[in-house]
Amino acid sequence: MEVSDVPAVPEWLPGHLDADGVESLYPPQAAAVEAGVTEGESLVASIPTASGKTLIATLAMLSAVKRGGKALYIVPLRALASEKKAEFEQFEQYGVDVGVSTGNYDSDGEWLAKKDIIVATSEKVDSLVRNGAPWLAQLDCVVADEVHLVDDPTRGPTLEVTLAKLRSRNPGLQIVALSATIGNAGELADWLDAELVDSSWRPIDLRKGVHFGQALHFDDGTQEQLSVQGNEKPTAAIVRDTLRDTVEDGETVEEGGSTLVFVNSRRNAEAAARRLANVVSPELDGDELAALADVADEIRDVSDTETSDDLADAVEKGAAFHHAGLSPDHRELVEAAFRDRLVKCVCATPTLAAGVNTPSRRVVVRDWRRYSGDAGGMQPLSVLEVHQMMGRAGRPGMDPYGEALLLASSHDELDELFERYVWADPDPVESKLAAEPAMRTHLLATVASGFADSRETLLSFLDGTLYAAQTDEQGRLERVVDDMLAYLERNDFIERSRDGDTERLTATNLGHTVSRLYLDPMSAATIIDGIADADDPSALGLYHLVSRTPDMYQLYLRSGEREQYTQVAYDHETELLGTQPSEFEESRFEDWLAALKTAKLLDDWASETDEDRITDRYGVGPGDIRGKVDTAEWLLGAAESLAGERGFGNVQAIREAKKRVQYGVRQELIDLADVRNVGRKRARRLYEAGIESRDQLRNADKSVVLAALRGRERTAETVLEHAGHPNPEMTDVTPDPDAEPVVATDTSGSSESAEENDQSSLGDF
DNA sequence: GATGTAAATATTTAGACAGCATGTC
DNA sequence: CTAAATATTTACATC
Question: What residue stretches are annotated with the Helicase ATP-binding domain (predicted)?
């Protein structure tokens, strides 16, 4: 089908796509159009990665916009939200407005109401529904990207409930659900009353195979010999093989390409990158090495940690690792260098399989089992997960085909891998809505936002979910609902009242607050219990409290740390809030200690401890600090609201603890750090120079400020301007030598990087 | 006694959404 | 109820 034959899309679209080199539709796209996506028909598209899902969504959304409507694009990751926004902004020249809404990057409220296309995470949409964003009523088309995630035990129910709510509020709504290839796409289509496009068609061929011995065995029955040097590992041999040009009759028929290696732990990723760097580097030319050295320098500038150094060392040699312990800057640098074909080999944990688009000539799924605490050992990855990783092979328009390989160490394993992953039918997707944590959260939200006002209406609302469509065990749902309603009532989140014959459910004020704050009710109960009797809680106590909440993911206690933190608990006994579980309650006590470890990390951060000391002390990456700090900030904000709601007298203490994590400063710097452009480092220097508050900064001697900020005029000017100084101008001001910072931190480095390190990398968001 | 290497033993283990109020060089 | 790769320590040989 030609683009010009697609009905109901804007007139300018065929021309625009033509200029992009798109003339005709891929078969699944054509099928979607025939099913009526551009005419408001709902659709479930279960098709492989990179087979043109985005265009299907685009056609649907633009046709809705053309009819004067509004479209919402739901993504699972914040990183994807910005990627999609950038992609849709190409249509702004035709008057299509695009907006984004996620937790940290928000263009909220009124402003979104004017946009034609809005990109948001599923949690954000859920939150908007709860808080009754008026523009939701104007939606005509909702795209749900990566719908197979309804299978996810923690985040799946949110997507499921959100879709159900949007549909029940707006019956004519068009839903376009995009999914990886799954086993039960038909079931999803039935649930959403949608047409179905279920196809395994791909624009570029994907050859799946298994490596065994010295050969690659492919799914088309062919084999390829691999030249192995010495006793090198299979992954090394594959990476080198991928890198070399394929030469036939003295002519290069195919240029060398890059490899993406998936492993099962961060440490493995780093170790593999270190080893493979030595395989890649001999194959690089001078230009490439120079460009890589530049990237390595940028990486070192991001933060002064071991992770940063190790990553830069690998990148210098053309390899890299990628996992969630990296700071967002690190991740982006690695992704960009890999896309630019500068870095030839990236060793990654699953972050890269689900995240932004980073295709590669070859993909190696090195580890197909992963440790799982509750399963008590190594568990095989799901078919879907492995397929998602494999799907990263082959760059559209650049490679003739992609190759994805698993590694076998025995003949039996070779057979098993073919059986389990290469030939395997995709797994079906199953709703996890009946899990208790999901239920207590969504039941409260459903009652609080007025979707249901009784047990009956609640159950009938739940009837519109995928869970109801899938289960034949009717009693289970009712049982969980009753349990969770009892829990919510016990904790004063909902109330039951009699209205004639029927029992009515209403959310209490507290319940409304909890739902609005987007807290797990159990987190709210924990927090309230902890702060209720704490007149003057310490920062550490509050950090521990929010770290114990189910909304904070746990750090892991390493060997010897059990004793260490038991001692810490003893030392700070009086500060810790709530009741301490008995030491004999094995797992509860361990969780409590793990939360204490998290609390200490936050406390260190809020005591101006250096980033590299924290990463070292707690065995975490820079990205983990960011994550913890972020979550703590949110939960303390929630705690502040809850304390206000309950009329507790400790609101101020909570706010201060929040500001301290937020800025990473001690008590005395909060006021200074509140000034824009002043982070933990600058605030400390100003303080040392005798400027101890915002007021003092406003009226400060300019030469003192300039010296404290290490003679950087531009910085000093902006800082003074934001502090409200009457005349921030720095011309002819000379730094006061008495006010210069005494710390001998590297003045040797380039001024650029010194300046970047000056403001902590966690400062801006 | 310093150094190097192999073998035994110990340790560790993926990912990531959200409130609110305002605006980064 | 299930593992495996890497890190660390120890044992031992060599200079």
Answer: 34-200
The residues with which A176 forms a beta bridge, in sequence order, are: A43, A143
**pLDDT range class, residue A214, cuts 50, 70, 90:** confident
Lookup: nucleotide whose C1' is closest to A324 CA: B15
How many CA atoms, within 13 angstroms, populate the side-chain half-sphere of residue A541? 26
Three-state DSSP at A276 gives helix
Side-chain half-sphere CA neighbours of A254 within 13 A = 14
Contact assessment for residue A620 and residue A614, using Cβ atoms and an 8 Å cutoff: yes
The dihedral sign for the CA sequence A283, A288, A290, A296: negative
A271 CA – B7 C1', rounded, Å: 22
* A 352-371, residues with C-beta < 7 Å of strand C: 367, 369, 371
Return the H-helix or E-strand segment holding A466. helix A466-470
Q: How many CB atoms lie within 10 A of CB A56?
A: 28
Quick one: tokens of A344? 């030839």
- Percentage, residues of chain A above pLDDT 90: 68
Q: Does domain A519-664 have CATH number 3.20.20.70?
A: no
Bridge partners of residue A208, in order along the sequence: A404
Q: Cβ of residue A490 near strand C, that is under 7 Å? A: no
- Tell me how crowded residue A557 is: count the other CB atoms within 10 A of its CB: 16
Question: What 8-state DSSP symbol labels residue A142?
Answer: E
For domain A205-422, the CATH architecture is 3-Layer(aba) Sandwich (3.40)
Query: Stated in angstroms, how far is A558 CA from B10 C1'?
Result: 12
Q: Give strand letter and number of the nucleotide nearest A513 (CA to C1').
A: B19
User: Helices A455-462 and A436-448 meet at what angle, rounded to 10?
Assistant: 120
DSSP per-residue string spanning A195-211:
EEEE----SSEEEEEEE
The domain limits of chain A are 3-198, 205-422, 436-516, 519-664, 679-758
Report the topology of domain A436-516: Arc Repressor Mutant, subunit A (1.10.10)
CA of A369 to C1' of C4 (A): 9
The radius of gyration of chain A from alpha carbons, rounded to an integer in Å, stands at 28
Distance, C-alpha A497 to centroid of its chain: 41
Nucleotides of C under 7 A from a protein CB: 1-7
Q: Is residue A662 a known part of a binding site?
A: no
Mean pLDDT of A642-669: 94
Strand C atom within 7 Å of A617 CB: no
Work out the number of other CB atoms within 10 angstroms of the CB of residue A444.
Answer: 27
The answer to whether the CB of A388 falls within 8 A of the CB of A49 is yes
8 Å CB contact between A261 and A276: yes
Q: Report residue A222 as tokens.
A: 């062919």
3-state secondary structure of A248: strand
CB < 7 A to strand C: residues 203-242, chain A: none
Say yes or no: do domains A436-516 and A519-664 share a fold: no
In the prediction, which pLDDT does A743 show? 54
Tell me the nt nearest to A623, Cα to C1'. Answer: B16
List protein-proximal bases of chain B (any atom < 7 A from a CB). 10-25
pLDDT in tens, A710-742: 878 888 888 888 888 888 887 777 887 777 666
pLDDT tens-place string over residues A110-167: 788 889 999 999 999 999 999 888 899 999 999 999 999 999 999 999 999 999 999 9
Fold (CATH) for A3-198: Rossmann fold (3.40.50)
Residue A129 CB neighbour total at 10 angstroms: 19
**Which pair of structure tokens corresponds to residue A762?**
């966690």
Q: Quick: pLDDT tens for A486-518.
A: 999 999 999 999 888 888 999 999 999 999 999
